[in-house]
Amino acid sequence: MDEEPSGIQELIIQINKNYQELLGYSAEKTRLNKLNSKRWTSFCKEFNFDKNSSGIYLPRNQTAIIPAKNKLSLFHEYFGHGLYCEQSLPGRELVNLERSLMEEEKEYFKDKQFTSKEINEFRKRNKTFQLLKRLQEETIGLYEWFAIWTEYFLSKEFNLGNLFEEKYDSINQERKKSIDEIISFSKNYGNLATFYNFEMARKTTPDRVKKLLEGIYKDKLDNIKLAFLYGSKEEFSDIDVFIISEDLPETDCSWLDVRVEKEDYFEEMIKMFDVSITGLATDSELIFGDKNYFDKKKRQLREQSITKEAIRYNLEKSEEQKRLAFNYPENSEKNIHGLTYSLTYLKNAIALKQNIRLLPKRELLHSQSESIKMKGGLE
To answer: Which helix (H) or strand (E) holds 166?
Structure first.
């Protein structure tokens, strides 16, 4: 951006516009309260808050309170804490618990005079407060570090890097090390990946995922045959990407699953109605690559003959996944994952035997076992 917006309100409008383009959402529920120097001092005194602090965010009413014209505070409180509380699961839970506690306090102290000591005593006995306290302890790292990274990110975007550098120079070495790690991650994998690594909501579209992959893989995406998006695409589910490439590395983390296969194996999976690929026919969206080839493979899944070989393949895959599952402790993540895939392959084999194409994986996961039965065995 060439010019810095002149005022706080203009800055908010521009940042929200940029966030809509990058993330698919912006700060919509957060309110801003800007206090001049005198009112800020009075506010801090009234609520026993450090007047040298640069701001405060109140999840209970989703309000950022900052000294007027302090742009770093705007970034930290309004777009850092505010967006986190709007667009992350822990943040939304934090807001809900705060509001539940507020209603319980109102009801308990209704028409009563009370002191801060009495409020504290009430909270010690209150289950909602205990849940809130536990959540705060578990998520304080993400909550704070996301706000600090937001300061860095927006300062860079709006030519205000000098403000961030001044603040950065004043902090201790331990905190600098953590900030440097976050900044390094964003430089290596891109801004979108950094937002998602902070557990922010993912508005999954082909264009947005393409930008995400470009940030992660950079020039390694050159000469890729095909990349497509599949899966549920819900805002807090994994982003599932399938890529056909001869040498691109796979990525598997808490929010991104990039499966990479060579073209020959991909063709075999199509031919065998492999459950991990059959959703291509109904649920997939092209990210980039050969569109004609993409459409051809979708038609093939819908129109090709179901063979005994394909049925046997899915049965063998079912047994293979079951064996793999039993290598891990019962009810562990990998044990459950293997058993789920084993059942899915089995259901697919039974359906194919009956000439039923349950192409989307979710249909296989939710289909009733008794509704599709093997008749006469494989032969």
So the answer is: helix 161-169
CA-CA distance, 64 to 66, in Å (whole number)? 6
Tens digits of per-residue pLDDT, 85-113? 999 999 999 999 999 999 999 999 988 88
Confidence (pLDDT) at 174: 86
Query: What distance lies between CA 286 and its chain's CA centroid?
Result: 21
Q: Where are the beta strands (DSSP E) in 189-263?
A: 226-230, 239-244, 251-252, 256-261
Predicted structure pTM score? 0.87
- At 256 the three-state DSSP class reads strand
228: left (phi over 0), alpha (psi -120 to 50) or beta: beta
Domains and CATH numbers, the chain: 8-197 (no CATH), 206-303 (3.30.460.10), 308-371 (no CATH)
The H or E element containing residue 154 is helix 127-157
Query: What pLDDT band is residue 365 in, cutting at 50, 70 and 90?
Result: low
DSSP-derived 3-state class of residue 342: helix
